[in-house]
Amino acid sequence: MVTPRFLGTIESTVKDKYTHPVVRARMMSYLYVWSSTFASDPGLTAIPQLYSKLAPNYAPAPEDAIVPITLALSAGTMAQETRGKQILQDVEVATGNAQLLLEAVSFVDPEKEAVEENELIKEFRANTMESHRKIALHLSQMTDSAEQDPAALASLLNCNQELVQAIKAHSTMLESRQQYIASIDSRNPFTDDKYSVDELEDRSAAVRNG
């Protein structure tokens, strides 16, 4: 029986705007095949139900659609065992990178520190983006493969979610910083000059104190 968590992860991955289009198309194609294969299985009715729910908005274009059962492994695909080990290693590294970025961002006050200039956070974000690229590639290769490993697929999907959450948190922090700077500029008489945020705050205080 398929678990609600597994289906929920697939649904959120398909819907998320940060999901690579190729990965989204492959996931929808697999859902289509699974829906046909397990349509008569009482324990797996949630699969065709999920496909019916997502298909109106996320059905892949004809050129992106695939029939996974008929696909053969490409000549350049790694051996299954080696590939499985690489996936586990990349998932572990990616999870760590996502956690580091989330923790770093959570300790930053956008009103006191320029997030975009924080070298440590910049490095964490770069590592997270690289991990996101690798995980997306693994997902694309796995959904292109004739051989499936449900456990590895679930692990990749969960990891992808963690990476997306970390990237979103960083983007939100940058937006908060930009909004704060804009609010300082909008109420400060020195906005025509090129001052730093700290200088603008000092000058604003001087004006208020007469």
UniProtKB/TrEMBL annotation:
Top-level taxon of origin: Eukaryota
Domain GAT: 82-175
Keyword Transport in record: yes
InterPro entries given in the database record: ENTH_VHS (IPR008942), GAT_dom (IPR004152), GAT_sf (IPR038425), LSB5 (IPR045007), VHS_dom (IPR002014)
Residues annotated as domain VHS: 1-62
Keywords, in A-Z order: Protein transport, Transport
GO molecular function: phosphatidylinositol binding; ubiquitin binding
Entries under PROSITE patterns matching the protein: GAT (PS50909), VHS (PS50179)
GO cellular component: actin cortical patch
BP terms from Gene Ontology: actin cortical patch localization; actin filament organization; endocytosis; protein transport; vacuolar transport
Protein's name according to its UniProt entry: Uncharacterized protein
Species of provenance: Lunasporangiospora selenospora
